[in-house]
Amino acid sequence: MPSGELPPLSAAVIELIGSDRQGRAGSPEDIERAWSVLADVMDPEVPVINVVDLGIVRDVRWSAGHLQVIVTPTYSGCPATEFIETLIEEALTTAGFHQPVLKQQLDPAWTTDWITAAGRENLRAYGVAPPVGSANKLSLLATASEIACPQCGSVHTERVSEFGSTACKALYRCLDCLEPFDYFKCI
Amino acid sequence: MNQYDDLSEYLLRLGDSAVVQGQRLCEWCGRAPALEEEMALMNVGLDLFGQARNWLEFTAERLDDGRSADQLAFCRDERAYRNLLLVEQPNGDFAVTMLKQFFYDAWHYHVLTALKASSDKRVATIAAKALKEVTYHLRRSSDWVQRLGDGTEESHDRMVKALDVVWRFTVELMAGDEVENRLAAAGVIAAPELIAEQWLATVSQVLEQATLTVPPAAPSFYLSGREGMHTECLGVLLAEMQSLQRAYPDAVW
Asked: Considering only residues 11 to 40 of chain B, which have any Cβ-Cβ distance to chain A shorter than 8 Å?
């Protein structure tokens, strides 16, 4: 939308959206800035990975004068989904975006294949083994081949439980350094 | 649009079974045999509640009678529930719980696999999401059935007893009705016979590995869950699950 066609904004609105946004609604720079704001929103359950690296932000675009963020949930019943949406909304509002709109999209279903390389490295450094292999190639009863211990790097590990402290993790133990650790399940 | 048609009816069946199975699993909270198992049981329950929400939200939109997904779950009586009789049965011991879970997971897995190719886009989308989770559920429950069946004398005996208690409710997993036949003909769901065949193959394989014998087909009178005719267990389960909404209507978290 050319800036000249924008209706005049009230003082309150100008204050809300921040002076830098005045008259620049829908610019590509804003989309870029929104993505960088999102890169600072961390997953509340795994606070070393941001929502972009986690692969749950599907799109950021302008719609009817509002920034629209398309988010896909990790697990159907993940209790953090709504909380993450609130965090995203708050971060964008604080950064000057006026009433950002969040939309959930189920299709295509989220997969751990979308976790970025940086995200995987952050998980590992935090002590959570990142997902191994590609979700597409997992057969029904196959177990992931080698899960490396995030502490000592040994692949001499065993599964303690198919589920860990959150829906997205399983519990493992390293047989060399004996440390228990979370494994981010490959789905 | 108020569409109380075959699809809405079928969505209720999927959603209600997930709600009831999830509620049963959560009864283990604070009582599971080991901490890891407790987390697993709760996580599976959580997945099922999430899936139920997806199905019931879709149902609520189609029914368009002012009821939300939450109201469908918390304000319907026993006779309006469309879940499988299998999932409403009491947890019993860990053997009964895992065997029920396994029978349900195997059915759920094949049903969702077929629904991924549903002619209804929204159904296919929800199923694709749920299937990823249910694949994990099935892997875990298959594993437990094998470990317990092919474990100690005590665990094997308990699995034999569990099979005796639970098997009769599986006939419902293998039989379609008019609603399902019509939906299958329209390409919305798989033919009930196909699901029956796949379910029995999966179950036979795992039971065999668990050194358990597949019993003969159960009598066909345990078929009434989808008509709202339940065993006495469901009323008690719903009374507990719905107590807050019944006492404080429209209360929100």
From this structure: 36-37, 39-40
